[in-house]
Amino acid sequence: MNRIAGIGIGLWLSLLGTTNGHAQDIKPLQIILPAQATWNVVPEGTPVRFTLKAVAGPNDTLRYRLGPDHLESMQLDSLGHFSWTPGYDLVDRVQGAKLIPVSFEVRNHQGQTASEQVEFKVMHVNRPPVVTDMRPFYVSYRTQNTYSLNSDFVRDDDGDPITFVPVPDQMPEGSKLNSQGELTWTPSLSQFNRLREKPQYMEFWVEDQPAKTRTKGRLKIEVTTLDLPPEITVIPKQTHYKLREDATVNLKFSLLDPNGEDDVTTFGFLSDNQDIPKTALVRNTDNQYEFIWKPGYDFVKDPRDSLNIQITFYVLDKAQNRDERRITFTVFNTINEAEKDRYYYNQYRQLLVQAWGLVEQLGEKEEQLKKDYKKAKGGKRNRSMINASLGAVTGVTPAVSGASSSPDTQKTGRIVSAVGGTAVLTMGTLEATEVIGKSMKDLLDRYNYVLGKRAELQNKGDIFAREYALKSARRNGDFVKKMDEFRNAMSLSGLVALELDANWQSKKEATDKAIKRTFKDYQPLDEVQ
Description:
Low-confidence stretches: 1-24, 381-437
Strand content: 25-35%
Largest sheet: 4 strands, mixed
Radius of gyration: 52 Å
Helix content: 25-40%
Number of domains: 4
Number of strands: 29
Shape: flat
Number of helices: 11
């Protein structure tokens, strides 16, 4: 019995020691990533597959999952099997490479977690151009047949520029294929007859740039036996355009007819708005047209803010087969900034012309008052007044009657007047009599007023011309207010006293040069602003 108990105690101690030893060997939970040096560098379109490992206890149950930053195309099951094929749209040709971060997480049954973040370096992979099935090239005899290998049949999924390269031994004799994909051929009689018996296939290369990766295309060439309808190709391919007034629309049209270019008889357009001129459609060649149209500022009538227009472009061949393209335009009402600037400039110039004319008129008045003042001063010196108190007028009469009848007296203009018992003798020249009745003080006051007003107008005119010389300044809301202030400054309180002629006209023309000579900061609209 004791032996059995001893064995049990020993077994328990042995198990306890083993458990303690395992507890001492437990390592923290950790994800082990692949050991290869470039395991995380992957080209576009290449699958990535690996299995995650983790450092854990021998009896741990582990579950793996992706972090929140993963892409939808990435897959990771609970056992750590990861798979991902990066798409071709992740990296473009200019970038060359792109880093894609992703987090991996692991959890054991005890709730412990560990995570690792990895950056996949995705490398750009150039894809060759794609050539889809092409409609046959129908040719006619004695006609230069044209076929366009355009983007309807050829594309490059990477968005690389593409060029077309002919295969010389596959080209029909006399045909030409340019780098833009335009194939032209005028078959001879023998070629046309052989082609009538059996269609011909022509191969060509489509090459992307700058990688110069090639894809071979194949085109069927046969004789036109049916009167097929023509086709309209529009560049750009939009069906709805939004534009403002005074913006230019430029659409390019290419007409393709399987029966040859000469089968096309009419190309035109119909519009639900009669303001669009027929001259907007310009013919460059027999099958190349341009639609050039510029709606003016009055196209959208106020108070509307926009106008919708639908134009139908149509082509007809000799058999009246028809093809159409409908395009809608939305034209928005736009303020004519140039016209508005012209309007403000005309007000600016008109006010300066008015000020210039008033300065010129005041200048002439200044010269006139200066002359009158000089005459008045000279007349005062040359006049002498003799007052004589006489007992009777008869006493004076004999003394001057002889003088008045004398030719010398008449020549000098001396006059004797007699009133009652007092005789006043005025001696002076005719020049003095021109200013009799004019006060020198009044002349001086008006002269000073003209000088002051002219200086004030000159000063305020200089300020106004300089402040609003640029069109940007005239767009300011204060422009109208400043104009009113300048007009008030041009009002003359002494207009009647100055005896200014209301119908006065300057002998000089109010040209831009004349205005600039008076107001040096004035700037005409046609100058650079």
